[in-house]
Amino acid sequence: MTSGLATTPPADNLAGRMKLLFSEFAPDYSQYRYPYVVWAVPEPGETPADLYGSGFHPASPDLRRFTLCRHLRVPLAGWTPTSENRRILRKGSGMVLELVTRQAFEFTAERQARWLAFAEERFGAGIMTPERLEGLMTRGVVTHLLVCRDEGEGNREVGCVLMYLEPPRMAHYYYAFYDLKHPNRSLGLFLMTAALQFFQDAGFNHLYLGTCYSERALYKTQFDGLEFFDGLAWSTNIDHLKFLVRRDAKARHLLEEPDFLSWHGGLDSLVDRTGFQLRRHMVEADPTPERHGTGN
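RESULT FIELD:
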């Protein structure tokens, strides 16, 4: 495994100072739900790693907007592969990983077609469009690509992971594209497991693994030390994560869920612990009717 990665110390920043926006989403009048999705916009002096660390995930490929979500990460300093992880790594014997900067990576038409075909089969029709993939590959959310080649097949490229890196604080395992017909039927899991080892060896603090909202995503819980963001803090309780995935989210708000409240000592305890605060300030209503489209 080779990296050629120059690890630099993080710049001084103002962690926790990001601006929050609340984007209105579809209401459900029958349940008295009037949802707002929490967006964050970085302040001067902040880097994306500050927002990742607060539970946010990129919501635009230019990294100008982030959204709060149930993100997963693994602290790498103390990570040790389990017996199952080691089995998966052994199955990848002969695989070589190379970290390539986005600028040095050749995004060919052949690669684009191969990745889009993979996405069509794995993600579903229309999820990853050519325009979306082009946006990912030409804007700030992808800084590096982790390329996997199989020495046993003439060093053929069999997988590639789109990544955002901010060394040494974090790496984000964003999208993985790989050969679904490869003899190693655990190739996708190998890529993620090998990435943990790769970035641990490179001295990174965390590897972010994306979100977890379905049973299908629970395979990520096999990594020891895994943390998930529960909306208020990072948690290592995998039983709680499985409960969140499997509960009927349409039945009630999470903050009305008895089990969730009992885990955290009740609503008052959650209020005391939250790191999010909103400083209200008065904004006068716009007195110009024409700006609101009335003209009356």
